[in-house]
């Protein structure tokens, strides 16, 4: 008689709460400081005597490098552990902020953008999602990953008033040096996430890197996920970087943008938490379609509603609710499709599309604004892309590949 061999899921030898706390704090710092870049657009361009396009190009480059770097950072984290990736990313972020402090031209800002992109590729959600996904059992995985998105929201909630205060007290240049010191906090937090990932023995877990890439790029639903996440990056980068300038153009006080972007971070906590829980009751693909449709409606508000402090803050709250709620659902689908062996790398590929969207949004926004002196075209494009993404996610089939659904191997009694 033969007996089916059941293999336990991979076991993390570090407490899940410690992994989530360390990873969440790192993501909060990295994502929070990334989101405050827009606060520097007006003072930097005025003091350096340059248009908005060079600054926007530098931030676009940072987002593009972040996306490219996320794929390689994910490969290293999946194979050797996230610790060394985090330390490298933290050091690169410190260099990038220093180069912004020392910048004298648009070219100098491009170098800053390069290092900032490398930095966040090693300290953002993409490099840590695999470590958290492997540490959590399947029934807690989506909620654990959602905690990273919530941490990013907390980071934004804290980073905007924190950076605004530093700029008011010390000036925009000196505040960048203080942010360099803030980034150093991430280095010791890498310790609980260091070490090579434990070998797994589940069905299909011996897959090679090349096989994982081949499987992913012949998977129709994964390709749709990659295409749809482009829109997420377009929306987030555009709004986060250009909202302060948009608010100033409308004659509103700078504090309105600070409050609005802070509320994005706060609302993101609720939205990401709900998204992390919703996967147990609603198909992830449907959740994503609803999120992108909701974003289209929110961006339409910037075109049809009167622009007042109340409407800007209200729109920001609504968009914040839909901000990083895409992350647990998108990364959860990657884990559903392919398992967690190469999760950071495969989510990194999806995230590269996100950052191509960020690059496109920022590059286009700087160009169109300097040409038309208006953001209306960008808001219309954002509405159209939201509807497109809602349609793209709907036909996704939410099931694992055959490799993972194969029957257990039978062993002699």
Q: Which second-level CATH architecture applies?
A: Up-down Bundle
**Rg result:** 21 Å
Predict the CATH topology. Answer: Growth Hormone, Chain: A
| Structural domains: how many | 1
Query: β content, as a range?
Result: under 5%
Give the C-level CATH assignment.
Answer: Mainly Alpha
Q: Give the topology string: H per helix, E per strand.
A: EHHHHHHHHHHHHHHHHE
End-to-end Cα distance: 6 Å
Find the structural class using helix and strand composition. Answer: mainly alpha
Mean pLDDT: 86
Counted by DSSP, the helix tally is 16
Number of strands: 2
Q: What is the CATH homology-level superfamily? A: MFS general substrate transporter like domains
Largest sheet: number of strands, sense, barrel closure: 2 strands, antiparallel
Spatial ordering of strands, largest sheet: 1-2
Fraction of residues in helix: over 70%
**Unreliable residue stretches:** 1-12, 409-413
Q: What overall form do the CA principal axes indicate?
A: globular
Provide a descriptive summary of the structure in words.
It is a single chain. By secondary structure, this protein is mainly alpha-helical. The chain has one domain (13-197, 208-398): Growth Hormone, Chain: A, CATH 1.20.1250.20. The protein is 76% helix and 1% strand. The chain is built from 16 helices and two strands. The chain has helices spanning 16-35, 41-48, 52-80, 83-102, 106-123, 125-135, 138-183, 186-189, 209-216, 220-249, 254-278, 284-304, 309-321, 326-338, 343-372, 376-393, and strands at 2-4, 410-412. It has a two-stranded antiparallel ribbon with strand order 1-2. The protein starts with a strand and ends with a strand.
């Amino acid at each position: 008689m033969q007996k089916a061999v059941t293999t336990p899921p991979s076991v993390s030898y570090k407490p899940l709460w410690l992994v989530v706390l360390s990873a969440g704090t790192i993501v909060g710092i990295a994502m929070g400081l990334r989101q405050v870049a827009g606060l520097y657009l007006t003072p930097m361009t005025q003091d350096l005597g340059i248009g908005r396009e060079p600054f926007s190009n530098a931030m676009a480059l940072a987002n593009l490098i972040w996306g490219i770097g996320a794929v390689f950072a994910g490969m290293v984290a999946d194979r050797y552990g996230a610790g060394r990736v985090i330390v490298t990313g933290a050091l690169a972020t410190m260099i990038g902020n220093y180069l912004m402090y020392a910048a004298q031209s648009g070219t100098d800002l491009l170098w800053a953008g390069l290092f900032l992109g490398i930095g966040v590729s090693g300290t953002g959600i993409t490099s840590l999602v695999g470590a958290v996904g492997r540490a959590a059992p399947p029934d807690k995985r989506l909620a654990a990953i959602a905690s990273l998105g919530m941490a990013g929201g907390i980071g934004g909630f804290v980073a905007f008033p924190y950076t605004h205060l530093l700029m008011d007290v010390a000036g925009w240049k000196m505040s960048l040096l203080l942010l360099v010191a803030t980034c150093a906090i991430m280095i010791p937090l890498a310790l609980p996430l260091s070490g090579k990932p434990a070998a797994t023995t589940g069905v299909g877990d011996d897959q090679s890197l090349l096989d994982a890439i081949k499987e992913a790029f012949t998977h129709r639903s994964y390709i749709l996920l990659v295409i749809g996440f482009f829109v997420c990056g377009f929306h987030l980068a555009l709004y986060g970087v250009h909202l302060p300038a948009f608010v100033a153009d409308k004659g509103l006080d700078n504090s309105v943008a600070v409050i609005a972007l802070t509320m994005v971070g706060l609302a993101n906590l609720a939205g990401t938490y709900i998204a992390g829980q919703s996967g147990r009751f609603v198909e992830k693909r449907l959740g994503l379609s609803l999120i992108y449709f909701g974003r289209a409606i929110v961006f339409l508000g910037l075109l049809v509603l009167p622009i007042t402090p109340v409407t800007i803050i209200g729109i920001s709250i609504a968009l914040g609710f839909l901000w990083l709620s895409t992350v647990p659902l998108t990364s959860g689908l990657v884990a559903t499709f392919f398992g967690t062996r190469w999760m950071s790398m495969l989510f990194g590929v999806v995230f590269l599309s996100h950052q191509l969207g960020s690059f496109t949004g920022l590059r286009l926004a700087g160009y169109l604004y300097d040409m038309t002196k208006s953001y209306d075209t960008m808001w219309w494009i954002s509405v159209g892309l939201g509807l497109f993404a809602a349609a793209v996610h709907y036909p996704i089939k939410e099931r694992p590949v055959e490799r993972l659904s194969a029957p257990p191997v039978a062993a002699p009694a």
